[in-house]
Amino acid sequence: MLKTYVIRFWRYAGYRIPLLLIVTLLATVLRGVGLLMILPFLAILGVLEDGATMPDGVQVALDYWQASGLTLELNTALTGYVLLVALVAFLQYWEKSLQAKLATGFTRSLKDRLFRKLIHAPWQYLSGIPQSELVQNVQGDAESVQKTFLDGMQTVTAGAICIAYVAVAFQLAAETTLACLIAGTIIVVMLLPLRRRIESASWTARDAHRRLLELMGERLAMIKLVKSFAMEDAEVASFSELTERARKSGNKRALAAVLVSPLFTVLGAIALSVFVGVAVQFEVAPERILVLILIFSRLIPQVSEVQRGVNRMASNRPGLVALYRREMDVDEQVDIHPTPEVAPVKLDVAIELNNVEYIYPTANLAAVSNISIAIPAHQVTVLSGPSGSGKSTIADLVLGLLRPSSGVLSVDGTLISEDNVSQWRASTAYMPQEHLLLHDTVRANLLWAKPDAGEEEIWSALRTAAAEHFVRQLPQQLDTIVGDRGSLLSGGERQRISLARALMRKPALIVLDEPTSALDEENETLVHTALDSLKKGSTVLVISHRASTVQWADKVIKLSGGLVTECCSKSSSKKQHH
Predict the structure, then answer these.
(1) Are residues 227 and 358 in the same domain?
(2) CA-to-CA distance for 107 and 101, rounded, in angstroms?
(3) What is the pLDDT of residues 544-569, one digit of tens each?
(4) Are 296 and 410 in the same domain?
(5) Would you state the pLDDT for residue 444?
(6) Which domain holds residue 157?
(7) Are 398 and 424 in contact (CB under 8 A)?
(8) 5 within 8 A of 142, measured Cβ to Cβ
């Protein structure tokens, strides 16, 4: 799993990975040089005894300086030290900037990739997953990946600094440094159980956060119902229960994480004391002990940072795992892979379903079976029947959202398959019963269906949907905000805006789910008249229970228990019984 994301990260970053490594390496080396410069300072100040030995690297640098005929003075050394520190600071800024840009850019590519996969996944797959889980995957889990890689890069940096400090310490006292390394390894092993506790608590916290998202989304969507049932206090109690669960898991994770710092401080002090004792035992020169203490006082926080980085990555691992599982799960789903531009399918004769059966993945029995019907082109066909009779399933099959478990769908004799279903969907429009509108203007809601539409096209669609009159009376007409899911409009107004949006595409087929259920008799008549005029350029399939709509249709297909029980047409006095 991690290997997969590391490979993707490497491909995304390209040349910036070697650049980051070079910057990190250079900054690390210069930090080590800065520490070694302390010994020449001590020599200049007269702290070191005459003839005191220097580490090999320092001695070579001093010999080269003297061979050049230059005198090492305090002002020169201090100036060099300040310049060195400034260069390290600049490299550190560059390093962290590169890390941040790489992490945020990579996360954006992950979000785009997953959203692309989800938006192309089969409808039956998406309809079986809570929206809150998908939001958590695209937003929260992808952010966890960002934090993991950022923490990973920063941990590598801290690790490189540790290596530099240890290398300098080896120059001064190899035996003492080795003893400290052994002690440090023991400390890290002792802290490993904390990492497992952090990861376990993080899984619980992630689940609590997802449940909070789910509750918020559902309850805000049904807020009117909550208030009409006087259920506010009950919902507050449910929300409070989830936030308490999130608090407990968050506390457990935080306490395990913060425990690392004090433990490391105490254990580091013990290690430092052991180091001093060992240094004295090996008769290390006092000035070297002084420099070694300085080195290890800087080393301990860096080792602590490595440990904290590992713990932060453990904290974010549940998001990484969840994102990977979702990607693998979506990859197993087979659906269309539409090209950027597809030519619409012409519909001049009929849409036909021949011996079609469909079984939902979670069901044992067929939702519809033995369906053999024809939907004539340029006519209005109504699917009628009780709830659960299979009307919506047939509509989804006709739209290409579902694939028949057996049987075939054809348009003008052409079979609809994976190769051309994208073209077919580009030729259809759908108006759902829920009338979902964007929290945006009337104009933006209509342009969503056809972004390049002009003003006249928008008003024409509104006129056809019997919505022009009320839209012109809105405070800002087309630029009026409709509210969340159209909450600032009445049910009938939302329905007509939704219908106008479907008409914007000028589709070969338009499927309408209860298109007049929220309309009064006058507006229902207007919509019927408008849809009747659409038959010149479109085929209309309507799901409806209303007797007025059934009487107005050119053809009625009645369903019961997933079977066609009757077909009747205005153009013929015959009735077909099944």
Answers:
(1) no
(2) 10
(3) 876 666 777 888 888 888 888 888 88
(4) no
(5) 92
(6) 2-331
(7) no
(8) no
